[in-house]
Amino acid sequence: MNIVITGGAGFLGARLARALLARGQLALAGAPAQTIQKITLVDQIAPPADLAADPRVRAMVGDLNALLAAGPARPVVGADDALVFHLAAAVSGECEADFDLGMRSNLDTIRGLLEACRHLKTAPTLVFASSLAVFGNSPEQPLPAVITDTTLPTPQNSYGIQKFIGEQLVADYGRKGFVRGRNVRLMTVSVRPGKPNGAASSFFSGMIREPLAGIRAVCPVPPDTAVALLSPSRTITSLIRSAEASDKEWGARTAINFPALTTTVADMAKALERVAGPKVASLIDWTPDPVIAKIVLSWPARVDAERARGLGLLPDADFDAIIAEYLSET
Amino acid sequence: MNIVITGGAGFLGARLARALLARGQLALAGAPAQTIQKITLVDQIAPPADLAADPRVRAMVGDLNALLAAGPARPVVGADDALVFHLAAAVSGECEADFDLGMRSNLDTIRGLLEACRHLKTAPTLVFASSLAVFGNSPEQPLPAVITDTTLPTPQNSYGIQKFIGEQLVADYGRKGFVRGRNVRLMTVSVRPGKPNGAASSFFSGMIREPLAGIRAVCPVPPDTAVALLSPSRTITSLIRSAEASDKEWGARTAINFPALTTTVADMAKALERVAGPKVASLIDWTPDPVIAKIVLSWPARVDAERARGLGLLPDADFDAIIAEYLSET
To answer: What is the per-residue pLDDT for B330?
Structure first.
């Protein structure tokens, strides 16, 4: 079995590739397990060295829209690719600052990718990474206290709108039989290693990661700000399970919410103090940033992930466990 | 005030233009009423003679995407256009038969139109005609018994998906201040004059209109099929009211459902018999068509149009009144 991962050189994409390579096989959509023979990592940057060194890994480096425009001569997805994880995206903060970037990176890409899949006539499975950001609170339309899989998304930022449009396209290309679509909504992934990025949610990792490295970090939202988190490991498990679920297990073509631990940034800081001591926790600067706060405070924090639960996907037990996982891996 | 109507030579567009010209003025989004000086009818066909003869009417004939591609040199929407009604669309049956046609006619058009509006930097008001077809019943995700303004749309045809994506784009361009967006969902409009078209819902007019003209007509769905109808006159009133509502009256950027009378095709036939006699009603052939039935039976029939009611918009009293209106106009 051949697999394509867009955004495959990024943190989640590379971690997903490592998990798939370690397993060595995959039971796609309820079919018998097959050996994974090739994973194509499509990204603007080259994959990490460990992945590049694996003989099963192929790298495709470039702008996704440009790569898709090359067409069948140099296909991003070929007839021998049974599964595509579409993780590539411009992140929330970037899309709010640069509207055209978001439309290109988050809307044109999924449409182009779906068209590429459609023209193969092989109906590959496409796992589309949507986001909790499709849900947005507003004075005119307050969010319910708990988000379910059937809550009406009312995105309050362009990233969320573009992701929600992607879900619709995946649903219809799926209904038409052009792909087997799997719409999944990622929660805020924390703790991410590496550097801050342009996501409004970036600080949910930075406020833990930087202090653990002895570096000051900003928490730009009030201490009582609640958030729906999922650890990197459970996010990857959930992505793979979504590809493995049979059509019957999967059910409706609308998106499923991944499970999430509800906590607050104050409680995240307390967990950091419990795990690493007060000196480390004191490296968090509580400095409000209205631009980031406006985006983040519009997102929901309580999610009843019923369909994910039905697939056996559960949230992390507590944030202490998430920090412990991060420490064990760095 | 200058107004643009895409699909302006079609039945609804022409009727809307006539209603606006007869009023002579419009109070846009709660502002003081202004005299309507120019209405541009954009369509693939030339407008009806009565409209073409009005000195306030300008016709712009061509494919909407092609017209939009011409850019500012020959703008579809200019800086002096305060209001756009976007009614142009490929209809449901066409989109299901020709996927690319639907994507071009219903997705590329609204995106192109929004981009044209954005680049004006005048934030015109855009009333986007979405549709009840955003709601679709499926075994995996049954519709609730009554649709509300916050019911999650789960479209079961490409037309509905494309309209729902359009709603998202209008909402975000509105949130960004590029336009003042007004997403409205039209119900099945009946009784339409003229000829059958490619809409799966076309027979809801044909099964009344044709018998009244002494011609046999097919009802392709079972007699107990329920439907959410709104007369042409109330549809036009609702479109104009949507442009006139202030931002505060309007509320959330998500779509409002227009009001609807719930009836069944059997009761429509009985109303026809009451109004025009058994001989006319006997001209209906009850011949199932699985392709049409599959689309139409996925649509909801009961709508609680709360936001529309708040704007003073109500459904027709009964189908007899709708037939009477049709007869009075032909």
So the answer is: 84
Do residues B303 and B263 touch, judged by C-beta distance below 8 A? no
Rounded to the nearest angstrom, the minimum Cα separation between B140 and chain A is 5
> Does some domain include residue B309?
no
Reduced to 3 states (helix: H, G, I; strand: E, B; else coil), residue B82 is: strand
**Residue A82: band (very low, low, confident or very high) from pLDDT cuts 50, 70, 90:** very high
Contact state of A161 with B168 under an 8 Å Cβ cutoff: yes
Report the residue count for chain B.
Answer: 330
**Touching A: B residues 163-192, CB under 8 Å:** 164-165, 168-169, 171-172, 175-176
Longest dimension (CA), chain B: 58
**Residue B54 domain-assigned?**
yes
Beta strands in chain A (DSSP E): 2-6, 25-26, 34-35, 38-43, 57-61, 81-86, 125-131, 180-186, 188-189, 217-218, 226-230, 256-257, 261-264, 284-285
Q: Which residues make beta-bridge pairs with A244? A: none
User: Looking up tokens 């496409």, which residue turns up?
Assistant: A126
Most A CBs within 10 A among B119, B165, B178, hence the mutation to make, goes to B165
pLDDT in tens, A224-260: 999 999 999 999 999 999 999 999 999 999 999 999 9
| Token pair recorded at residue A249 | 């297990």
With a cut of 90, say whether residue B59 has pLDDT above it: yes
Within a domain: B321: no
Rounded (5°) CA angle B238-B244-B250: 80
Among candidate residues B11, B85, B135, B159, the one labeled active-site is B159
DSSP-derived 3-state class of residue A246: coil
B33 Cβ under 8 Å from any chain A Cβ: no
User: Any chain B CB within 8 A of the CB of A141?
Assistant: yes
Confidence of residue B269 (pLDDT cuts 50, 70, 90): very high
Structurally, how many domains does chain A consist of?
1
**A208, part of any domain:** no
User: Across the interface, do A176 and B99 touch by the CB < 8 Å criterion?
Assistant: yes
pTM of the prediction?
A: 0.96
pLDDT for B229 equals 97
The residue segments making up the domain with residue A44 are 2-187+232-257
**Where residue A45 sits, what CATH number does that domain have?**
3.40.50.720
Distance from CA of B95 to the nearest CA of A (A): 12
The residue-averaged pLDDT of A196-207 equals 94
